[in-house]
């Protein structure tokens, strides 16, 4: 997806914000081969589903672990406990209001 298309999907921005976002993407080196969540690439980030999050976990976590095991030479059978945090899995609405 072209960087400009990603920026232009944000309908509530002014021209200065559009310019800033586009320049930030360019300066960050984000291009056609850059990894991004499938929902962002597909333009569906406003309505993600659990399946999207699980798919991304499979892509990122398992790929990362495979690379880690390969680079270190440590087989997965040698790992007793592995703690992984995933902060982006939040597909549903969260009620943050108090119950008072």
UniProtKB/TrEMBL annotation:
Keywords: Acyltransferase, Transferase
Alphabetized Pfam families for the sequence: FAE1_CUT1_RppA (PF08392)
Reaction(s) the record says it catalyses: a very-long-chain acyl-CoA + malonyl-CoA + H(+) = a very-long-chain 3-oxoacyl-CoA + CO2 + CoA
Keyword Acyltransferase: yes
Annotated FAE domain residues: 4-90
The protein's name: FAE domain-containing protein
Source organism: Hibiscus sabdariffa
């Amino acid at each position: 997806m072209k960087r400009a298309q990603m920026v232009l999907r944000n309908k509530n921005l002014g021209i200065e914000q559009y310019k800033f976002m586009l320049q930030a993407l360019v300066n960050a080196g984000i291009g056609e081969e850059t990894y991004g969540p499938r929902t962002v690439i597909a333009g569906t980030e406003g309505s993600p589903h659990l399946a999207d999050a699980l798919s991304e976990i499979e892509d990122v976590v398992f790929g990362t672990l495979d690379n880690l095991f390969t680079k270190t030479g440590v087989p997965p059978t040698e790992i007793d406990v592995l703690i992984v945090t995933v902060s982006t899995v939040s597909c549903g609405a969260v009620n943050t209001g108090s119950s008072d």
